[in-house]
Amino acid sequence: MSAAPNVYDAEPIPEGARAEIERLLNSGDLFRYTSENAPVTLLEQEFAAMIGAKYALAVSSCSAALFLSLKALGLPRDAKVLIPAFTFAAVPSSVVHADCIPVLVEVADNYRIDMADFEAKLTDDIQAIIISHMRGHTSDMDAIMALANDRNIPVIEDAAHSLGTQWHGTNIGTIGKIGCFSFQSYKLLNAGEGGILITDDDEIIAKAIIMSGAYEHNWKKHGHVQDRFRFWQNKLPLYNQRLGNMSAAIVRPQLAELPRRVRDGRANHDYVAARLNDSPWFIVPDKLPPEERAPDSLQFNLEGFSQAEARAFQKAAKARGVAIQVFGLSEDNARAFWNWQFLGSTPDLPLTRAMLEKACDTRLPARLTTPDLDFIAAALLAAAEDVKGPARAYGT
Ligand SMILES: *Cc1c(COP(=O)(O)O)cnc(C)c1O
Asked: Whose CA is nearest to atom 14 of ligand 1?
């Protein structure tokens, strides 16, 4: 029997990063605004061109990008912001940080926003919408954008963990007014920490750049929208959420790796998903037709498991070498809305709760081999049998 694959290790940083890091170490030129054409500036230009956006601003995290997005929209204190109830705690946190109030929308058991609840909660007092494409799972962006545009409400896409995902062939993150991505180590581009904000809007990029910490006339090094920078000069607070040159030097050579990571991640996902869907215990929800996935993990729902059985399954999978988490059953999970006690109170959201209590998450990085994938699929199927007994012949 082969050994359990290590799904936690990141890929090595491409060799191409070394010369640039050596240069930065020798020069000590680590601050993005010291020299012209610094690695952070080049990363912004390359990322914007790759994703298909006019402007990009690299910052210290995706959380910072979300916060700056809300601030750049000029939302007043206590503005209500619609967010999905299935997201990472960083999202409601960014709303609180921007002095706004998050309104949670139900998410269905296919991990996508429940459009009936979305429409019901899109009341006149909603001033912005954040759509989290959790693990790349893309909600119905056609319906969401139609409703938002109808009411003139700006949409921020939290694409932290969905770089490379497409909707009707368009990159996720470029559909709303602003898109935000993460360079934290578990995402598709790894700088340890970091993030990037993209937009086509002159006003938003100028405001976000100044607030990210382009103090005095550092904004001149961005080249574009100089008249907008001049207009906003000294009118906005500085939050200093810049990215450093070392992080940019680590990310830049990874951009060329993206197509491979996306292609292999999708193939790995679909391979394991097909094996799980063949069993009576698991359902990997279908994507919506316009979506092309770029997964580096797999989510699936347990079918007909009690909570005790779901916990036993989690334990059995671990004993067989595969760590999974049931989002709603692992203690203090940051993606379970009832753990966001910092909001004061959280509403009752039965649809999202039911999904979280059966939705499993397992890492599936692009670098895994077919034997690794077979090991994982076999371990999950065997763990289900450990709990539920042998499957009856299925499909006959
Ligand atoms: C990782 C993640 C974030 C936060 O990204 P950071 O760069 O760690 O701040 C936000 N939203 C989602 C959906 C994420 O997966």
From this structure: 160
- Sheet containing strand 55-59, edge to edge, reads 55-59, 195-199, 178-182, 155-158, 126-132, 80-84, 101-105
- The residues pairing with 198 across neighbouring beta strands, listed in sequence order, are 56, 179
Instruction: Give distance in angstroms: CA of 244 to centre of ligand 1.
Output: 19
- 0.90 exceeded by pTM: yes
Nearest CA to ligand 1 atom 5: 62
The contacts of residue 263 (CB under 8 Å, 6+ apart) are: none
Question: Which residue has the least CA distance to atom 1 on ligand 1?
Answer: 160
Q: What CATH number does domain 258-393 carry, 3.40.190.10, 3.90.1300.10, 3.40.50.2300, 3.90.1150.10?
A: 3.90.1150.10
With a 6 Å cutoff on the Cβ, whether 91 touches ligand 1 is yes
Which of 161, 189, 361 for a ligand 1 pocket mutation test, highest count of atoms within 8 Å of Cβ? 161
Strands 291-292 and 166-167, bridge-based pairing: antiparallel
Going from N- to C-terminal start, the domains of the chain cover 16-256, 258-393
Per-residue pLDDT of the chain (396 residues; tens, 9 = 90+): 568 999 988 899 999 999 999 999 999 999 999 999 999 999 999 999 999 999 999 999 999 999 999 999 999 999 999 999 999 999 999 999 999 999 999 999 999 999 999 999 999 999 999 999 999 999 999 999 999 999 999 999 999 999 999 999 999 999 999 999 999 999 999 999 999 999 999 999 999 999 999 999 999 999 889 999 999 999 999 999 999 999 999 999 999 999 999 999 999 999 999 999 999 999 999 999 999 999 999 999 999 999 999 999 999 999 999 999 999 998 999 999 999 999 998 899 999 999 999 999 999 999 999 999 999 999 999 999 999 988 765 544
Q: Whose CA is nearest to atom 2 of ligand 1?
A: 160
